[in-house]
Amino acid sequence: MSRGRFQGRGLDRRTVLKGLLGGAMLGVGVPILEAMLNGHGSAYADGDPLPTRFGLWFFGNGVRLSSWLPVNQGADWQPPAAGELVPLVPHKEYVSVISGLNVKTPRHPHHSGISAVCSGGPHLKVDDVRDTIVSTFKYKSIDQVAADHFQALAPSPYRSLEAAITRFRGTDEGTSFQYLSHNGSANGETNVNPSEESPQAFFERLFNMGTAAPLLLKARASVLDSVANQITALEKRLGHRDKERLDQHFTSVRELEQRLSLPLAECSKPTAPGDFPDVKGNEQMVEKNKVMSDLMVLALTCRLTQSFSIMFSTCGSGVVMWPAGATDGQHYMNHTEPAPRTKQHNSVTFTMGQLAYFLEKLKGTPEGAGNLLDQSSIFVCTEHAEGWTHSQDDMPMLLCGKGGGRLKGNVHYRGNGDNASRGLLTALRGAGLPLSEFGHEAGKTSTPIAELENA
Amino acid sequence: MAKSDGSEKPTSISGRRWGRGLGAGALVLVTSLGGCFGAIGGSAPDATGIGPTQKPAKFVPQPATIHRLTSIQLQNTWKALFGSALVPPVADELPQDDQAYGFTSIASSLRTVSPLEAEQYEKATYFVLDQVWASEAWRSATLGCEPTTVDDPCVRAYFTKFARRAWRRPLASAEVDEFIALTTKVTAFTNTLSEALKFGTAAVLQSPNFLFRIEVGAPVGTEDPEHEGLLKLTGLELASRTSYLLLDAPPTEDVLDSAEAGFFDEPTVVRAFVTQVLNEPAARGPLVRFFRDFMNIGRLDQLDKSADLFPAFSQTLGPAMRTEIEKLFEAKVFDEGGDFRALFTTRETFLNEELAKVYGIAGVTGNEFVSVTLPDDGKRAGLLTTPGFLAMNAHKTATSPTHRGRFVRMSLLCQDVPPPPMGVSTVLPEPSPSEPTTLRERLEVHRQDELCRSCHQLMDPIGFGFEHFDALGQWRDTENGMTIDTASDLDGRPFNDANELAGLVAALPEVGVCIARRFYQHATARLDRKGDGPAVKALVNSFIASDFDFKQLVTDMVVNDGYRYAAVPLEAP
């Protein structure tokens, strides 16, 4: 990562802002103000394009395809009556539906599905000695691919942010079942970016750090510098897998150290959300989704990060979708509910309603001449087409946002059994990544979905 | 009890006697199911994965690695450094402990430190140090002196002594120099030297040498032909390994001193040491946590049952179920001793009021657990009829013979069952209102469909034995008015009910072999592979020879080759 480049790029804008705001210490972490933009509000005054944001929004256990799929293909998709995408209709100008794409990597229930739709590559069995599988992602998830790109251009204080809405209620089958954001694994080490599950902790971390004396920040940065040097010294004594683990530790410590030296202005500080303990054993998922979505939107508008992930429920999640009338954990329900699987259908419809809240919030947040959703590319996916058969053909995917004008929105693209990674490639391109191909091993593709892109 | 029903007690895991001990049924079954069983360690599978069908392997242990401290280990290590007055950060504020293959220990040997976790470690470090530095007396006691300049020899003395405890090894002089240099640098940002020393200390405590248990080992040469080419863990590494295994805490200064003096090279001394540690109250928690992971009962803390169907269910019931199982294990291992398999047949248990209601036992009041003898009515005995086992391996509203059988097969016998094949619907036929059926009857489809049968016959027949217990683990005479049939078989050995099944399980040497093998995995923080075979066999044999005495297993583990040696880790390809 090039810290110097960031400082160079940031300087002009900070100078402008200093003039505007009477010399208050400012930098990144500042919402983009109208005065910083060109006459059309479509770019910065110096001609730089407005930043795009990339998001990965995941929910577990698949859908019910018969009511998920729109009735038509091409522009202006329409859900079937009482279809699962109905809650997204108010935002359909910003939502494209992708269907008809298949997982091409070696298949295994759940494991290969999440790895394929979140990383474009195969899952990696950890300690490959038993059929009882424990897996992690072999390749980094696409939120981290986007983060690499954004950080190389102009680092944000946080390279990425991760939030979870419902709790992990799955089984001990590795990080694929418990986490969303992965950094990839060369040798079976488990290298993940855990999602924050507590709204209060997320708030404390991002918006309630208080103001530390600058000299003490320097002291803390010196300590972290020493720690980074210790990691480097230790790595020399270790084998390959442990070096990989400590490389990540090193990166994490260096990022923290650099953040301490960035002049972080306070965004408009939200009120403390508190936490949402279960009420009579029921997860307060609607309230939590609302608060987590609000905090994430604030973090995005404040430029705390450009890449994020939201895990509504985990891969193979056992969350009880009680607001949708479910009484059993979703994974179990999927495997036991007889056709027509009304509870599964209602659960997915409910989940899309929660996504709709997030999209609405982004849409309602102005940025430049448009809104935050105009500037975003958000990939929505799940690890199965339908959970009860563990099927990984015809994977349900959505691509939300206009990607700074790169994405059309309101198109249903239906493939013909081709590679699921095409959806991921298109989503990354939508965020401005200059990719002509994406994916790994059998998941590799060089065919973006042109039908969803503005020429 | 195991030996009273005529089951054979094998004297050795290798050779024909062992094969007979397993019983013909198990071996025949396994060979006929080659397609279903996953191979373990690339070898031909048998009931244990380490039995006679496998050629004697050369001992090749797992590569040396580093282990991230768990949250309780971190908390205990801070307390060991600063005293019991310290209030360490709570687990929620620390990087989360995961499980891999059931064990937190294995997950800890895989995890790295993410950006979020680096933040958490930093915040936790200052949370600890700010407590100490807020009290002049406490800070002084920690530093051992009140230096006025960073050149004061006591600064060097402090870092030398403190970091040795924190890193569980002596520091090289150059490493101490770094901390003095850092402290000097930070003095420019702080008002006082003592404040700068806090930041110097923070670097000790955020170091990977503190946050991880480092195992590098020393190469074994020709002087030890049996282990030549391997790495032998150093005395200090073994001191840490053992201290964290037994106490979830760092070695004391005494143990560090002894380790440096070659203490861990003397098996008789090590045995005496472990025996002594196991008598300390502090040894109970870590071994109970092993058993929690072994039984996978941490999940009970999130137990979720239908309140409509089960009025006895509450948010505190799941944790109470976990506590019962943990107390059973603790009492067996630490208070009674002897054959741990008696856990499967005992009618002695520990209940509080709400759990006693699940048992239908009157007279227990309050939240405290009391010792209870279950009635001799043939309904319940031991671990496999605890509500914890029964409820955890059932669904929110319904029982699951498949899940209960799967748990016995996989977790208690250490045998694999693959996941359902892709593309197969797992939905069972709905009971028809006009023709009510029991769950067992509906599970017949698993027996009729060949694709399902090959694996489900490993699970369902065992699980049928528990059908008199509902999804909460309460006894039920009938299932929706229908007669319940619990007669079934365990790999060809017939049983009539859960009580008889428990007796069969208790008599199986596989159960002893399995927990010994799982303890080996826990202690080495890896799944065992083929190269571990000789070391696992040695451990299992001594466990059998001890009549399955669990404390003996722990003691033998610490002197086991698989615990003391490691392979040279791979370099980058």
Major β-sheet profile of chain A: 8 strands, mixed
Major pleated sheet of chain B: 3 strands, antiparallel
> Topology as H/E string of chain A?
HEHEEHEEHEEEHHHHEHHEEEEEH
Average pLDDT reading of chain A: 89
CATH T-level fold name of the largest domain in chain A? Alkaline Phosphatase, subunit A
Strand content of chain B: 5-15%
Contiguous helical run count of chain B: 27
- Basic shape of chain B: globular
Helix content bin of chain A: 25-40%
What amount of the residues of chain A lies in strands?
5-15%
What's the oligomerization state? heterodimer
Radius of gyration of chain A: 22 Å
Overview of this protein structure:
The complex is a heterodimer of chains A (455) and B (573). Chain A has eleven helices and 14 strands. Chain A has helices at residues 3-21, 65-68, 111-119, 142-153, 199-207, 214-235, 240-261, 285-301, 330-336, 342-363, 421-430, and strands at 53-58, 74-75, 95-102, 123-125, 135-137, 161-164, 181-182, 192-193, 307-311, 366-367, 370-371, 376-381, 397-400, 411-419. The two termini of chain A are 31 Å apart. The model of chain A is unreliable at 1-28 (pLDDT under 50). Chain B has 27 helices and eleven strands. Chain B is globular. With 573 residues, chain B is mainly alpha-helical. In chain B, the strands form five sheets. Chain B has a three-stranded antiparallel β-sheet with strand order 3-4-11. In chain B, strands 1-2 form a two-stranded antiparallel sheet. Classes of the chains: A alpha/beta (455), B mainly alpha (573). At the A-B interface, β8, α6, α7 and α9 of A face α5, α8 and α9 of B.
